[in-house]
Amino acid sequence: xxxxxxxxxxxxxxxxxxxxxxxxxxxxxxxxxxxxxxxxxxxxxxxxxxxxxxxxxxxxxxxxxxxxxxxxxxxxxxxxxxxxxxxxxxxxxxxxxxxxxxxxxxxxxxxxxxxxxxxxxxxxxxxxxxxxxxxxxxxxxxxxxxxxxxxxxxxxxxxxxxxxxxxxxxxxxxxxxxxxxxxxxxxxxxxxxxxxxxxxxxxxxxxxxxxxxxxxxxxxxxxxxxxxxxxxxxxxxxxxxxxxxxxxxxxxxxxxxxxxxxxxxxxxxxxxxxxxxxxxxxxxxxxxxxxxxxxxxxxxxxxxxxxxxxxxxxxxxxxxxxxxxxxxxxxxxxxxxxxxxxxxxxxxxxxxxxxxxxxxxxxxxxxxxxxxxxxxxxxxxxxxxxxxxxxxxxxxxxxxxxxxxxxxxxxxxxxxxxxxxxxxxxxxxxxx
DNA sequence: TCTGGGGTCCTAGGACCC
DNA sequence: TCTGGGGTCCTAGGACCC
Length: 432
What we know:
Elements: E1 2-7, H1 10-18, E2 27-30, E3 37-40, H2 42-46, H3 55-58, H4 61-65, E4 68-71, H5 74-88, E5 94-99, E6 102-106, H6 114-129, E7 133-138, H7 141-156, E8 168-170, H8 176-184, H9 196-204, H10 210-214, H11 218-224, H12 227-236, E9 254-264, H13 267-287, E10 290-301, E11 311-322, H14 325-339, E12 346-358, H15 377-390
Parallel strand pairs: 2-4, 7-8
Antiparallel strand pairs: 1-6, 1-7, 2-3, 5-6, 9-12, 10-11, 10-12
The chain binds a DNA duplex through residues 30-36, 38, 52-57, 59, 72, 98-102, 192-198, 226-228, 251-259, 262, 302-304, 347-348, 350, 352, 411-412.
């Protein structure tokens, strides 16, 4: 038995904890670069704002409907997430932190009324962190996800499901006819693992509700679609096919990519950007104690513009696996020089570290032709601790440009709230 | 004017091996 | 005249997730 707990409209809810004036009004949180809406309050959803809606298309709602938009404040959301996750751990034996706002919890053998336990957990999270949540429970992870969808929808849209399923929904506790009614009232596109593409194909095959999906034969689903969809069908039928991952595996690739605040055509600002992306990626790599054997650099124009398009990437193999910022930056810049062409309005660039392996498993080599490169792991450790203590960007590679002058390529963040919980200077002051 | 970032898994097809 | 079968590894691309 599994539970899935997630924060309602998570980023918006984090902002509301520190700015109660945002309660009961339409609020969206914008993606990096203030590009599009990535979180919406219920009031914003009611205005018809879709997930991912470009900001320039909805900004008129500021005047006409009192919409408030905020730039994403990931330092705040990450810290609020840590607080919420540590509470959620108390719900069962093992916990998988699935995303910034979701956890699966294994519930087998937990005595007592699970629905009541779920309601108590919601109340505790709300009282201790200020964050509203919903909880779904079921025999498999896919059913728990589905139950969570039912819990949220029943709360937000009265009449869509029986009211006693709001906020906490345990599919395993329903009578058979009640479960079938829930399945019949839910579209296949709400199922975890079914995206727009497969959803369309299912509907063309006459399968539009979860109830119809659960009646398909898994083997035929595998032949017609794939083993992935077969697992989804079996999970909906109650057979666990996806295990809980209580200790997250090391990443197999690490990326740092950004859209620019404004178009870039010159090489020099691109070098600064690529330097900073590679440095940041190297930092993440060292945090998981791994080395990269290849690095990919890419640049591209905006596919939304009518301008001449340019999009290229290049994979640069390293002589030996490394997590050294200088080595990775140098390789990334070599890649950039190979693919850069003047005259294009570039909108985005990025760096990806590939072919990762744990530092402890790296293949040693015979020093035949020349001496091995100097070991700079202590230098990197010092760099990381300085940047952690005094703030990101305290120590930079020279090709990243000096920290003082404003950079045209950095992203737009015109509406970011303070880092209330992670910077001393930003801690809110309570008036007496 | 203006459209995010960071991941995973699966499959098909080519190259190569014996 | 007549040219196999079985396997692995790698890569690119598709689909999905939040």
